[in-house]
Each structure stands twice: as C-alpha cells, then as structure tokens.
Amino acid sequence: MEALFDGAMMDAAGQALLTVLQPERIMFLWLGVLVGLAIGLLPGIGGLTGFALLVPFTYTMEPFSGIAMLLGMMAASSISDPIPSVLFGVPGTTASQATVLDGHAMAKKGEAGRALSAAYGASLVGGLVGAAVLGLAIPILRPLVLSIATPELLAITIFGIAMVSALSGSAPLRGIVAACMGILVGMIGTNLMTGEQRWTAGALYLWDGVPMLPVLLGLFALPELCDLAIRRRALAEERKFSATQGMIKGLKDCVANWFLILRCSGLGAVLGAIPGISGSVLDWFAYGHAIQTEKGARETFSKGDVRGVIAPEAATNASTGAILVPAIAFGVPGGAATAILLSALMVHGIVPGPEMLTRNLDMTYSMVWSIALANVFGAGICFVLSGQLAKISTLRYTLVLPIILSIVYVGAFQGSKSWGDMIVLLGFGILGWVMKQLKWARPPLILGLVLGALMERYMSISIMRYDADWLLRPGVIILLGFSFLVLFRPLFGQLARKGFRVVLPASTRPVFRPEDLLYVFFMVVAGYMLVQAQQWSFSARIGPTVVAWTAIIAGAVSLLFLVFSNRSHPKTEASGQGDDIYMDLSTDTGDGLTARIMVMRAGIFLVWVLGFLLAMALIGMIPAIAVMIIAFMRLEGRERWTLCILNSAAATVLIYVVFDQVIRVPWPSTVLGALLPPLAAIIPSV
Amino acid sequence: MRAALWALLIGDTGLPCVIKPEGAKGDEPVRRSCRLSAAVKEDNLQEEVAMSILKTFKVSGAVLAMTMGVAQAASAQTVEEFYSSTPVTIMVSAPAGTLSDVLARQFATYFAQHIPGEPDIVVMNVAGAGGMVAAGQLQSNQPTDGSVIGFLQRNNLYRSLVDGTNDTFDPREVQWIGSLNKEKYAIVASGQSPVQSADDMFTTPMVIGATGFANENRTLAALMNDYLGTQFEIIHGYSGREEVYLAMERGEVDGWLPTVTGLITGDQARQVAEGELTVLMQLGWENDPAFPDLPNFSDYVEDPEVEALIDFLILPFEAGRPLAVPAEVPQDRVAALREAFTATMEDPAFKTLMEEAGSPLEPISGEEIAAVVDQLYATPEATLEDVRTLVTATD
Predict the structure, then answer these.
(1) Domains in chain B, ordered, with CATH?
(2) Which of A51, A75, B122, B254 could form a disulfide with A374 if both were Cys (CB 3.0 to 4.6 A apart)?
C-alpha cells in the first residue's frame, strides 16, 4: 500500500484529469449532466432509471467517455432534486425528502430563490468533498470498508432510528408511535429471514413490500397540494428577493454556514460509503445532525431555516462519490444503481475490485474527476436558473396544481407499476394530511419505513452469527452510546429545565378531543398487525411483536398524558409539553379560513383526486392527465380555454415522451381499452 | 374483412357474435354462422370480456363490427404479416437494470431480427414477487395474439407447486418458447475458511452465508446438512451476492453457494484463479466445463429419496431464463417464435456478446422446458413435503 502513496498516485490523478478534459469526453459528461438534471426534476425516476436508459449507449462508446456520461448523470440527478422539493413540497428523488421541510417553508415565505441557490452551493461543496474523500481514501478504501461488519451496520441503523427523537420536535412519544408505524409498514411483504409473507393478505402487490415512492409522495406531496387547493392562492404571494438577490443571498448563507456544510459533507461521504445506507436516510441523518448541533435550530428548523436546506443537500451530494467506494474497492455495488455502473465497466473489460486500485488506477481517478466536474457543471446550471425557477412559486395555483398532481400520480406509479401504487398513494396522502393538520411529525414514519426492515435483518444476522457477543464489539459500543445520547437528550434537557414535573400529569380531569382519534387509529392498526403476527414462526414475529407493542404503549402513554394535560388551558395546547417546535412543515393552511371552509375545500380536493383515479381507470393515465388538467383549470380557476389547452398539452406531451416513449412504463389496463381494443392500440396508456 | 362486413350486415339485429359462456341461451344459429365465416378465436379472454361489456352497454352494431373486423382480420393474417405490423413487447419479470433486465434487452434486439416480419420490439419491466407478477399477468391478462412475450425466472417453474399458489400462475398453462442459459451452483470457500476441501465439509464446521430463506443458496446448503451430513452453520439474510462476498472478505462467513456463472466472471474469476477463493464442490450431477475436476452430488448421494429431492431442487436450473407466451397464442406464431429463438441462440454476434457479458448461452427449447415442468409436476407428494420442510421456517 505504501508504494501507492508515492508519485505514482499523483501521476495517475493528473493523468486522469487530462483524460477527462478531452473535448469529446467533456461533451459526454455534459450530456450525462443534462439527463441527470432532468431526471432529478421528476419524482419517480431516479438515478437507477437513468442508468438503465443510458447504459446501452455506452456499449459502443470508449470507456472513459461512457463512464463520464454515466457518472455525470448520477451526480447531476441529486443536484436538481431540490427544485420540486422547494417549489412544490414534492421530493424530486428519495434523497431530497428532508429538503422539503425547510426548503418548501422558505418558498412559502417568498424565498424560493434563496433556498435553491443555497441548496446548489451546498450541493456543490458536498459533491466536491465526496469526490475528494473518494480520491484521497483510495489507498485505504479496503481496510475501511472491511472494518464495518453486520453488527456495526446494525448499530448505525439504530443510531438512525434514534434520530427520531430529534425529528419529532416537541412530541417525542408521537415520534416513536409514527416511527413504529413506519417500521411495521416496512415489514410488510416476504420476510427474507423465513420466507413467510407478512400481512400480504394474498396480494402479489405486497410480496415485495410497500414501495417507498408512493408512500413518500402520499405523505409529503399530496398534503401540500391539498393545502394549496384549500388556500386557493399562489404558493408565495410575492418574492422577497429579485432573481439575483436571491441567488446572492443563498450563496452568502452557504459561506456563513461553511462549517455545517463541511460536517454534513463528511457525514454523507462516510456513511454513503457503507452499503445499505442510501440517500433516502442520509438526508434525515444530516437534518437531525443539524438540529442537534446548530444554535437555535430547535426553534427555527422546519419553519424556513436555510440551514435545514443546506445540511441534507450537502450530505446527499457527498454520498454520490462515496457510494462508489465499495464498488471500486471490492466490485461490490452499494446499491442497484452502482450495480448497473459495474456491469457497464465490465462490458469495457474493466473489472471492479482490487485491480481498480492498481492496474486501472487511471480509470478510478477519472471517475473521481468526472464526479467533481459534473457537480461543478450541474450546480452551475441550476444556480443560474434558480432565480428564474423561483418565479414558479408565484404562479396561480390553478396553473401549477393540476400539473404537479399529474406528475405525482405518474411518479407514484413508478413504485411498482400497478394499481396498488395508487391505493398506497391515496391512503398515505390522507394519513399525511391528517398528520400534518394535527401536528404529528411525518419524518419519523419515513425513517422507520426505511430503516426498520434493515434493522431487523441486521439484527437477525448479528445474533445468528455472533450471539450476544455482537454487543461487545468496540464500534458497536461507541455507536450505541451515541444513539442513547441522541435519543434521550431532549428528555434530559426537559428534566434539567423543569424537573420531574414534566413527566407528571398536569390535571386530574380528562378532556377528550376528536383529534385523539388518530392515536386510536394507530393503536388499532398496530394491535391488528400484532394479532396477525402471532401465527408466524418465531423469527418472523419477534420483530413485529416488539415494534407493535412499542407503538401501542407509546401511543397510550402519550394519549393519557395529553388527556390529563389540562388542555382546556390554552398555554399547554398541542403537545402539552411546552413551547418547543413541532418538527414538520408548519401548518399554515388555516390562515383566516374557518374550519368548515377548510374541510369543505379539502373534500373538494379529495373529489378531484378520486376523479383523477377514476378517469385513469376509465380512459388511461395519459388521456386522464390531459382531460383533468383542463377540467381543473376551467372549473377551479375559470382560466382561458387557450391557456388550459396549452398547459394540458404541454404536460401531457412531456409525460407521454418521458414515461411512455423513453421509459416504456407498462400502464394499467383500462375499461376503455377492454371495450375497444383498437383504441388501445392507438392511444398510449389506454 | 369478410367477417367485418358480415357483422356490419347483421349488426342491427343485435349482437350476433357474442361468445357466451357454456350453457348460455339465445342467438345460437347466428353465432354458428358467424363462426363459420371466419375462424374466430373464441377462447380469447380479452375479446370475450370486451364483448360482454359491449352487450351491456348496447353499443351500436357498427362499432361492434369495427372491433370484430380488427380482431378477426388478425387471425387471417400470416405470421409475417402479423409481426410486420404489430410491435412485440418483451415483458421482463425483473426490475430495470438487473442482470436479467440487461440480458433481456440484449436478447430482444437480436430476437426481433429473427422473427418473420422483423417487428419493432419493446422491453417492459414488470417486476414483483420474484417474477410471479409478470408470470401471472402473462397467464391471465395480457394480449394473447403473440404480441407479448414473458421473460420469466426459473422459480416460476416450481414456486406454485411448493406454495400451492397455482391460481396465480401455473407453468403448465403457458407455452414455452425457450430458455437462454442454464444455472449451476457450486460451493466456494474464502482463504480464511477452516474448510478448504469437499471432504472437510463433513468433519469441520463452516459458516455459510446465504440470501433469502427460500433461495437456492440456502436451501441447497440446508439440504446438505439434513441429508448428507455437512457441518454448515448457515447465516441467511444477506441482501445479495455482494453483501455475502463482503462478509466473506471480512471473515464474517467462510463461504457460500454461488452460481458457476458468478465464479467465472468479474473479480471472482480472478480470485478463483489466484487461489483467494476455493471452489469446493459442484452442486449437480455433472460438472460444469469450467470446473471439471470438482466432486459433485454423484460422489455423495446414494439414497434414491435424497436423489429425488435434489432432482426437484436442481431441475429448474436447466431453464435458467425461460421465455413464454400465453396458452391462447395461435400455433403458427408460437412455432415462428420458437424458430426465431433457436436462430437467435445460433446467431454468432449474439453468442459473442453474451460470452463477453459473462453469461454464455446454454439454450434449451420450449419443448424441453415443458418437459421440465411436467417432470416437476410429476414429483411424488412425499418429496414435495420434504421440499416444503426445507423452505419453511420452523422455529
């Protein structure tokens, strides 16, 4: 290894830079970056789809250009994903969920341009740090990755779950309930450990588990759209900054928070190198880290604090480079996307594995440079556009909403390309809206969904392999210690400030409210799942049993506390635990509207959503989009016919080209298609 | 077009050509004459559904005539006419970007050139439930005119039999076109493993990594423990081969059961060549040419019941990547697709491509797949029970 540190290494790095800078390679890199930016914009298609689309073209290209194009695409797709997150509250990829919280809140305050520009600044630094870590760590990659065994992975996932306490704001018990519900949903499907099917009710759809995408879009995107429909106004009334001002302000934010960016980039780079830790949890790790370490973050996060945008964006972009670490060092892909990248390398006769660090060192360094350059290009393009993009936030809701709704539908359908996705989207959409209205934090649910099944699997392997000895490994002890601190810090803080008073009920007279029914709902669901689980083999039921009981107990304690919290007294309203923040998008739906109007407008929106689904079943997804956009614009906003048709045609053609012609989505069968098969042959998706 | 005209003429008298379920009354004479006028494929489920819905809606005869015209004109076409005007969809049962998907996409381009009429070909991913979603769709709700071909997985051949889920997919209810390659398993040990030869496996404990509980890489190891007396400690739950190899490298497990293809390509090929990995045994009755000197099952198995059990588990490997079309696809088109499959398998360019991609072709014909399926379904219940014990968690 030492030999690598001498001039040879620098030589290879310099040589690789010159290789990548060749004009035609730069051109392909640009091409990849453009495709990647487009992919990041559309929820539902991520880097994986991008690879599947681009890889066939690389077979005939020379290896350096091909790989540059693929990496350009991969890096760029995580640069443009904050755009829909900030502007519409719709995560562009699974790696930009956390950005929604503060980014979208900023957009509502008229600071979309600032949020976007800060996101790109953070992305750029993150991406460069990720590439640098990859480049510098190359000599020590193998021992680094080998030092992490399954017990350490388990400890990392436990650490992730402990973040729940940071992400549930002032109501930690509610956070635990939501996280447990997420874990239970994540456990649905065929259990890898026993081959048994858990809670699948015989539906093939559920065999592979509930897909993440429709859950995510349901929980975060649909409630935002619903609130937009309730307010009946543009997202932001006016922009606080002009295009250039916003851009400059965002950059200044990045400079002011340079240390946060560096910390989160480091976090992303290190965790991203571990197979199994994907962008969909990294962003929450970074967000949680920022809440716990940044001054005043507990008060301002999720209300439009720019640091809440910077932290996750830096981390997820840093992980793009890091994700290649196991791939390069071991030939082991860190995820499905890198698996395709490896197959592309192999087609060109480059075998990933130890030889990447010796014989093919130039290729390895060219990958590092490609990622670095792609970040510069991608962030540059987005940065230049950010001021203009911010204007979208001031458009009339009737123009924006139907298009975003269509994209959410098509995006959710990419989950497993069946009707089940639509049902999951709708179900979690309703749940998400109710949670948002009742101030239940939604991030813990997502965290549980992503980490729960992973944790169960790692736990099972650790115990099978090491019995209880896994707890004695030094890495595990350190990580579990951190988890303990993270989990109980808020409680200790409260105890220190207010003494044991905080855990005692404030009143002896119980007061019930209709919103307590959400507790009952969660507890009943957990109870039902618990009962169902008892018929399975021990290893299949132990996880669900523990989690379901935790949900029921935490829910019961929290509910009891609330009921006896003297809630008729206005000061202890909501969570009953003082004035900390509620860690989710703040609910500003109400402003000035009576509850009756709100419920009525939410009902109207639900009718639109259901109507959309019905139209999809009758005439197919693409015609439904065309029709529904026009219908919504005419009926809700009395927009001019020409505008309606133009808007509808543009959205329909975009979706048709991307999803039907390029990705070849298998659309669900429709009534019209069954009635008139010849029509199905002519009109897409019928 | 005669059928269309005929339907147009009699259209205003009602719905003459509606195909009714057994025992339905009415319109018998007209229905028969309609049948005579053109060879109606009355077992075409989609048309049947379409028409019965049409009837309930009382759509005018003219619309019906158009529908009928298109449907019936199709069956009068030659295979070449049909495929030159109808695009073919290859329905891949794995997600985009997986090895199956990559192979399917490469296969599709060559396959299209060998089908009469050289149709446009579209690759579509219908993933889910280990290929069962695609298989089930192929059997029950895809067009049955030969325009959709399923690129399925080998577990589709026996999964229903073991799970008792024949209502989802029954491999005897489709027509098989052929399979691209065969799969063979082996046992491999890392350099740090206490076991370095096949004979050691019976005396020295060895930690074996595996993926899912029902996956062959665990069931075969469990079978060897239960019936052959190996001393494996099986740790399953790894997400895939990559995780297992990492676990081997850091000493968490000592070895695992990979496919032979996975050992002769990529970095594993180098590791085997340089002695970092030791291949212990071939899990079959015969050896792969890549490892001619390994011991295999025939060195250790004498009990015919164990033999039957092993046969059931490894027989599906013969059809590693099978293709199928629905049962209702007309015979001439099936024959043409099978011929095109054979021609593709012999296409030198495709052969070279697959060899370079590390998945050399080992095709078997559609008839041979059907024979494999029949053999699987002829397995005695006692053996099936043994299989179920192996793939069912007990604690």
Answers:
(1) 2-76 (no CATH), 81-182+319-391 (3.40.190.150), 185-315 (3.40.190.10)
(2) A75
